[in-house]
Structures are given as C-alpha cells and as structure tokens.
Amino acid sequence: MFRNISVVPVALVLLSSVAIGSENASDNHDIHGRSIPSITADLAEYSGIDVNRVEAWGDNIVVHTQDQNGANRTVLVDKNTLRPVADGSNS
Fold first, then answer.
1. Integer distance in angstroms from the first to the last C-alpha of the chain?
2. From CA 88, how far away is CA 3, in angstroms rounded?
3. 3-state DSSP call for residue 18?
4. pLDDT reported for residue 30
5. DSSP per residue over 31-83, as a string?
6. What is the pLDDT of residues 11-49, one digit of tens each?
7. CA distance 17 to 74
C-alpha cells in the first residue's frame, strides 16, 4: 500500500519535468525573437548563405555554414539586419 502512494508523487514530478522541458524546447526555436526557419530562409534568400546552424551570440547571431570547398565557416551577423558584422560590433 505504501509503495503505491509513493509512486504517485514521483510520477507527478516526472510529468511536470517533461512539461517544463517541452516549454523550454519550444523557446529554443527563437533567436532574438525570430524563428530559426525564418532566419535560415532570410539568409538564403537575401545573402545566399546556405545555413547549417544558427545560434545567439550576445547581441548578434552566429551562422554556421560551409563554403564551396566544404570547409566549415562561421559568420557573425547583426540580429536585426542579418548582415555580416565585420568588426565584431553591432552595425
């Protein structure tokens, strides 16, 4: 009987942890208020950058891509304009 009672609180804790984790996972699809698919599409359309991955980097966005030779590249872009930041500061 005591075994059944102790399982219920544990199950509730596990379920609440899953719910919290799923909320956080959905939050991770935005970077500086823009969706990752939107950032990826805009970079491809307007800058010709084929994006592998994007990440927030301070007030900017780091774009991971490959050049024509297959070498991995990173480009730091402004979070608002998605234009490359040449000197490491916002433009």
1. 66
2. 59
3. helix
4. 92
5. ETTEEHHHHHHHIIIII---EEEEEEETTEEEEEEE-TTS-EEEEEEETTT--
6. 444 444 444 433 333 445 799 999 999 999 999 999 889
7. 34
Q: Which of 86, 77, 30, 37 is closest to 58 using CA atoms?
A: 77
Centre a 10 Å sphere on the Cβ of residue 54 and count the other Cβ atoms it contains.
21
Per the document, the length of the chain is: 91
Q: 58 burial class (0-12, 13-18, 19+ CB within 10 angstroms)?
A: exposed
Helix (H) or strand (E) holding 30: strand 30-31
